[in-house]
Design a protein that fits this description.
CATH architecture of the largest domain: 3-Layer(aba) Sandwich
Number of helices: 10
Strand content: 15-25%
Enzyme class: transferase
Distance between the termini: 43 Å
Structural class: alpha/beta
Helix content: 25-40%
Family: Belongs to the glycosyltransferase 10 family.
Protein name: Fucosyltransferase
Subcellular location: Golgi apparatus, Golgi stack membrane
Pathway: Protein modification; protein glycosylation
Number of strands: 10
Radius of gyration: 21 Å
Mean pLDDT: 88
Largest sheet: 5 strands, parallel
Strand order of the largest sheet: 6-5-7-8-9
Low-confidence stretches: 236-245
CATH topology of the largest domain: Rossmann fold
């Protein structure tokens, strides 16, 4: 429940990290209190307080030998594609894409939507299984909405696996170059499968997708509430977009729902 009084010196923040498609039934509720919201805080780039899941920091020194170790380990892997998933029917229809991809590539699906299960002694061992056995991982979002990306992708990037992404975020601005494969950049799953097969046997291509690891460290973001604190304590700090004081977004329903431009995959998506 909302407080009955919105004092002038208070800032009410709409904080959300989920797709708007998960809140379709809340449109009317948002329209009722949107005039009280001062700031937005989310994964959307145009939020007043932008919340990225991770950051990449340039390494001070490069270890050239580390790439050879990663490439050799990648070449020795015996399984092709893994996917950890428990939501079997999604707004993005990612499951339809994976079903089609499975006709041409080996896709091992873990969780209640598939036939495989991770070791029972914790999530860490799921990642170990992935790191040791698999070349690719399907980092497929459950919603195809503007800027929407989940933490799972960044966890996968910390492993010796090439993530295959499926989403509507601006990945080029979020991730290091050649750190992922974009499924939606291919005409269809068949063409993606052919490309994955090519990578699997091409040492120079494999290297090109792993080289970024010798240049960057990845840190999962746990400090975004610091940005909120800074913004609350600042009138304005010029040049820092995350702290710029903004006007109230009166039509939050339009911003949150309609301007997210959510869509879904079909065989003729591209």
């Amino acid at each position: 429940d909302l407080p009955r009084t919105h004092y002038e010196n208070q800032r009410w923040v709409l904080f959300n990290l989920d797709s708007p498609l998960k809140f379709e039934r809340k449109r009317e509720l948002l329209s009722q209190f949107q005039a009280h919201i001062n700031w937005t805080m989310s994964y959307r780039n145009d939020s007043d307080i932008y919340v990225p899941y991770a950051r990449f920091v340039k390494k001070p020194n490069q270890n050239v030998n580390s790439i050879k170790i990663l490439v050799d380990a990648f070449m020795n892997k015996t399984r092709e594609i893994a996917w950890f998933v428990n939501d079997c029917s999604t707004a993005s229809r990612r499951e339809n894409y994976v079903k089609e991809l499975g006709k041409y590539s080996q896709v091992d699906i873990y969780g209640i939507c598939g036939q495989f299960s991770c070791p029972t002694n914790g999530e860490l061992n799921c990642f170990k299984l992935l790191d040791f056995n698999y070349k690719f991982y399907l980092s497929f979002e459950d919603s195809l909405c503007k800027d929407y990306v989940t933490e799972n992708l960044y966890e996968i990037l910390s492993l010796n696996v090439i993530p295959i992404i499926f989403g509507s975020a601006d990945y080029k601005s979020l991730l290091p170059q050649n750190s992922y494969i974009d499924a939606l950049a291919f005409k269809d799953p068949f063409n993606l499968s052919n490309y994955l097969r090519k990578i699997s046997t091409d040492q120079s291509l494999i290297r090109s997708y792993l080289e970024w690891k010798q240049n960057f460290n990845i840190y999962i973001n746990d400090f975004y509430f610091c940005n909120l604190c800074d913004k609350l304590n600042a009138n304005e700090i010029k040049g820092n977009r995350s702290m710029k004081i903004s006007t109230v977004k009166r039509n939050l329903v339009k911003w949150f729902y309609d301007e997210s431009h959510c869509t879904f995959w079909s065989q003729h998506y591209i």
